[in-house]
Amino acid sequence: MKSNKIAFALHSNxxxxxxxxxxxxxxxxxxxxxxxxxxxxxxxxxxxxWEDNGTGSEQLSSEIKKMDWEKYDEKILxxxxxxxxxxxxxxxxxxIKCTSLLLQSPWIPMIDEDLKKLSDKLERYSTNVxxxxxxxxxxxxxxxxxxxxxxxxxxxxVKKLWVEKLGHExxxxxxxxxxxxxxxxxxxxxxxxx
Length: 194
Description:
7-stranded parallel beta sheet; single chain; alpha/beta; globular; two-stranded antiparallel ribbon; Rossmann fold; 6 helices
């Protein structure tokens, strides 16, 4: 029997679908049908990237439409680093409603110009947003905080986990963290260990 829950997972720059499967396959254990999207933009041999001004939004939108997205009861988008930027740009550009966003170490320069428009759309579609980022992630922590504080001031279910002593990577216990964020009403807000 096919699941009534679907998730799309996007890798980071200098990665591939192999990395994405390794990072996000745990979502299958939560009852989701998981689809993995590999960027069309080649970085070098066997690895890919999501260019900030590239075709990632068009690609993700096209893949979502192929899956008859609206027929699923629960729809989540999962991204690591630049995959998060592609997800947010896609949601801003296209009429795609999703239940939840899982944003790991989000590299999201798109919010520098489009934060208010993005927030308006996430609020209008009642999208849950879960952000996990290392406090030592020099490229992503500052923008993660900006996104969280903007969404917290809206009628949006947003939860965050700032992980001490963590750089640009997944926390050791991230599968448990995301399961808790998705299915517990009061998700964890801070982590003091890593």
